[in-house]
Fold this sequence. Notes:
The structure is a homodimer.
Chain A: E1 8-11, H1 16-27, E2 35-39, E3 47-50, E4 53-56, E5 58-59, E6 70-73, H2 77-89, E7 93-96, E8 126-128, H3 132-148, E9 150-158, H4 166-180, H5 190-194, H6 198-202, H7 238-251, E10 257-261, E11 271-279, H8 285-294, E12 298-300, H9 312-315, E13 321-328, E14 335-342, H10 346-366
Parallel strand pairs in A: 1-2, 1-6, 2-5, 6-7, 7-8, 9-10, 12-13
Antiparallel strand pairs in A: 3-4, 9-11, 11-14, 13-14
Helix pairs in contact in A: 1-10, 3-7, 3-10
Amino acid sequence: MTARRPSLAVVGATGAIGGVMLRILSQHADVWGEVRLVASPRSAGRKLIVRGEESEVLALSEDVFDGIDVALFLVPDEVSARWAPIAASKGAVVIDDSAAFRLDDDVPLVVPEINPHAARLRPRGIVASPNCTTLSLIVAVGALHAEFGLRELIVSSYQAVSGAGRDGVTALREQLSLVAGTELGTHPGDVRRALGDGAAAASNSPNSPNSPFSPFAAPVALNVVPWAGTDAGNGWSSEELAIREECRKVLGLPDLKTTATCVYVPVIATHSMSVHARFENEVAVDRAHEILATAPGVVLFDSPASGDFPTPSDVVGTDPTWVGRVRRSMDDPRALEMFICGDNLRKGAALNVAQIAESVAAEITLA
Amino acid sequence: MTARRPSLAVVGATGAIGGVMLRILSQHADVWGEVRLVASPRSAGRKLIVRGEESEVLALSEDVFDGIDVALFLVPDEVSARWAPIAASKGAVVIDDSAAFRLDDDVPLVVPEINPHAARLRPRGIVASPNCTTLSLIVAVGALHAEFGLRELIVSSYQAVSGAGRDGVTALREQLSLVAGTELGTHPGDVRRALGDGAAAASNSPNSPNSPFSPFAAPVALNVVPWAGTDAGNGWSSEELAIREECRKVLGLPDLKTTATCVYVPVIATHSMSVHARFENEVAVDRAHEILATAPGVVLFDSPASGDFPTPSDVVGTDPTWVGRVRRSMDDPRALEMFICGDNLRKGAALNVAQIAESVAAEITLA
């Protein structure tokens, strides 16, 4: 008996995350039957390679979901908000990478290493994948939670500019090329001067963007920018509240104490996190090491005196979450400090969506 | 009656912090009588400008302290350890910027905005100035402590490469020029490839230095490096323990819970800190704003939705500690989150030493 392989639609196939997704699909070529590539009408007609074969991109419409079992949405929030329910109404299981449904009570928010079974209960026919910042840390934190019982997270991020999309990468590149010829650091204010931001620096609001294309509220080359997303009230950014709400939902801990400070750094790809995690019980670094060394999707890289700790340049392009600098708080035997890195374009986006989709495919194939 | 103006020796006048010190002395030209510039024999004979006049650099020796009231030591730990006691034995009050005496019980550790009177009790004739990372945050935290009663600090740093000395700045510049011509971020691993670190990346210890001159254990261009200083045991770096011990000593809180994670970022000058501060009593953001807006040495810059938050490119070259992103923890009414920036070469080094020296000068002049 041969099981039918489910059919797949990739909506947003021509975007940055779509490109990573096509590479993942090519590596896992035996999971899917038909693979249909979908994008905005502007990109329709382009030809892309997936699983070694050329495939024409179709324009997003109701009809593209005919006969589709699983539809991946790798598109902006507003596109998902409109089209994901349409795909679901046509019978496709939607795996959505946008923020549109992440906090919807009728949509499970899934990280396969942590709550795989949540994907099976999907009243709206939609499964959501978390924000890239949440995904950068939650696999490691979830493994420790299973052993020690998590009570509080205090997180400071070192976020890559690709987390702000292609414009973020373009802005960093342009700013770096502007400062490249200057004698950086010889005089105060070199960065702003090189970026031609003198007028804004002299005003009361120096954090104006430097380029019409920059998604950042301040220069990001030779700088750090402690603001990600939009104003969420009471001084918080939307990215900071996303980490809080998504960690609570994925871990099934609605009252988990969680505080995040989100900061962009001049790194192209891979988010890093400095994490203070307090648990219900005392923790031992040796036991934490054992857990992290054997947890699925986690690489333990922790011998700092020998130079072994994760940095973005080690981690970029890899699938797992890397953890190092694990140490017990000197004032609290129940708390661990850690430094965690994850590629925001791999596990942080396309890979987690692909993992959810494959678990749904297995369920369909078995059914 | 005209008071005699005290005489000053600047040991380490030819270094990076020495250069900043000469500019500060020129701005506060009326404080000191004779100013004697001192450096290693290698730099002796050089001519430097201070207070508008050319001055020849003398070689460090016992004799250079003859008749000196106050001696500033802006030199490596081992030079201070040897020569500061000699200067003190000749009757000079030593203000030392190195780590050699910071945790000595008979040496006060002074931040004039916080514990100015501690400088008057100096059994060894030596007063120490804190590490640049401690100084980047403690003025703001100390002001809040005076009102609310500090109980715990959890800090993650975004440290500038100049905190690792001139070699740190050189390493970042060299690495940036190597990556400048590449299509950064097009492929994973661009940074390491551009830096010619392929061999090391393939080994088990990818965090090897990229340049014989780099003080960092990993590439710092387009990267972040979660390790500063030396191995202090149990997974901690020396810089992390310095923040802990120095905050406790300066604030007079020997049992203060304090945890730091120190991370270098590709910024030339100005250290930034993400700070979680828990107090004895409930805190209100409005009251915290009032305190920070009026505290000496602090600039409040906190309207993030308008783009007003401190970043290194705003703060570099300025004297104060800048504070923004002040918000109350959503789970703990006694805790505040903040983002703090301070120029590690100004308040973080030369300025704090100059401020201590001026308070000693006032004491000598009055005596």
